[in-house]
Design brief:
Elements: E1 19-23, E2 29-36, H1 50-62, H2 64-69, E3 75-83, E4 92-103, E5 106-115, E6 118-128
Antiparallel strand pairs: 1-2, 2-4, 3-6, 4-5, 5-6
């Protein structure tokens, strides 16, 4: 017996992030965002859906190649998210990101999500900057 149905959510877009920019001790750009998600972002009861966490990491870490070079247009080549604990709804989530390596057009970054100082998720991302246009 087969079943079919519609799988969906009331909100299919990740939340907008208000991002603050800084630099680490080596002068590399870092980013921080603070956000509180309500039931529109629910996955497991009372907790944030992991797909929204992944989308927020992609958005947050994706600004680092631009902050490094001033040129827009890096593309996500890989995003790995490790879910360490449930991330509760209606709590202040603090997401941070930093560059980990830059090699030619490849930029790697890492990020973390904390709630009340507790790590709930972390991410590693590879972004690829487009090749220079040839005339």
């Amino acid at each position: 017996m087969s079943e079919s149905g519609r799988l969906g959510a009331p909100n299919l877009l990740p939340p907008a992030l208000d991002v603050s920019y800084d630099a680490d001790d080596l002068g590399h750009p870092t980013v921080t965002a603070v956000v509180c998600l309500d039931e529109a972002y629910q996955g497991p009861p009372g907790n944030v859906h992991g797909g929204y966490l992944a989308a927020m990491f992609d958005n947050l870490l994706g600004v680092l190649p631009y902050r490094l070079t001033g040129k827009k247009g890096a593309f996500t080549g890989r995003l790995i998210v490790r879910y360490r604990a449930l991330t509760p709804l209606n709590a202040e989530l603090v997401l941070t990101g930093r560059l980990t390596d830059v090699r030619s057009r490849r930029v790697t970054a890492a990020g973390q999500c904390h709630v009340d100082g507790r790590l709930t998720a972390e991410a590693e991302a590879l972004f690829v900057r487009p090749a220079a246009e040839r005339s």
